[in-house]
Amino acid sequence: MLFGFGLKSSILLIFFFHGIVFSFLLFKKGIQNDIKSSKWLSLFTFLCTLYITPFMLGYANWYSESPYREILFFIPFQQLFLIGPVLYFYSQSLLNASFKISKKDYIHLVPAIVYMGYSLIVFITDVFIVDEPYFYADGRDKDFDLWYQIAGLVSMVFYLVLSLRFYLNYKKIAFETVSFADSILFKWLQRFFIAFLVILLLRLLYFIINPEWGQFGRKFWYYLCFSALYYYIALSGYSNTVKAMIPINPSIDEEVPEISIQNTKKKRIEITIPDTETWKQRLLDLMLVEKLYENPSLTVSDIASQLETNTKFISSLVNSVFQMNFNDFINYYRVEAVKEQLKNDAQKTKTLLGIALECGFNSKATFNRAFKKHTSLSPKEFLATLA
Fold first, then answer.
1. What are 308-350's pLDDT values in tens digits?
2. Beta partners for 272?
3. Lowest mean per-residue pLDDT among 15-29, 106-120, 247-261, 290-304
4. Residue 160 is inside which H or E element, if any?
5. What is the C-alpha separation between 134 and 138, in angstroms, rounded?
6. Which listed CATH number (1.10.1740, 1.20.1070, 1.20.1740, 3.40.50) goes with 7-239?
7. Torsion 132-133-135-136 (CA) sign
8. Does residue 111 sit in helix, strand or coil?
9. 36 and 30 in contact (C-beta within 8 Å)?
């Protein structure tokens, strides 16, 4: 029997075809450029493509004819226990330059492996052991059993939460270690999470409206929405493929000044740094005399190298003495440098963006956000106060 090209099957076929293509392109890019995140996104896209496959084939009448029906029933297209972990590993490989899947990470794959084993048992039993179908006596695809659909939804929600937590931790580390945090926040990844969240909410909504997931005719709009959203995820991921820039667990030099941590009466933790004023002045000299802030790629490691100490100590020094994270600390001096130039009428011979770039900012958007944050005024509003 040939593929039945109806309206529904044809639409899903388009998404199926593009899903396969993007899976291949992402994997190819990951291999060529040694980008782990591309490989994980390739697998995520492929799993989403498999997810819509039974309904695409169902609308094409393959599930209503033999021998297609008997063959397709034994293929576990919907890997609901695998989509969540792959999303989580993708998030880690994208954000963490030191990410490598370890033995303990394989525990996340156990449910998917168990389900694959269950599918294999169903296949062997119904095809080779019993004379008549035992597991498929009801004529229903096991991928659409109620328990599996609910457990799969819970699994994907759980791993979305884990991914979001990892992303928030990444943001915190970025602001503590680099002076260009705004440019490596992977804001498109936030849209990725939103798209995946919408998928889960739609799935929950359609599940409540009609829990009979095996009824092909009633699920088209859900699978159409799912296809559009995962296509957006694949397209965005492919166009924004980059390597992770910072390690989540950076190594720390052991030869560092002693830092003592004490509990206060208010149950807050304070860090006591020996010779605070000396270290503070040395750090200020790098800003005011050496003007290290003019380096748009400045990191906490660069500062630590200049002061012959380690990154953890510098972060603690900035946090406790200046009450700022490293990113805001460096941007403060960049903003002050811009203000000084504006007061000296530098805008008459240079553009505002040109001044910002000279002072260490790497983009107009980052400059505007930092200036507003530290002065409560936009650059143009500040210029107006000088008139």
1. 988 889 999 999 999 999 999 999 999 999 999 999 999 889 9
2. 260
3. 247-261
4. helix 146-177
5. 8
6. 1.20.1070
7. negative
8. helix
9. yes
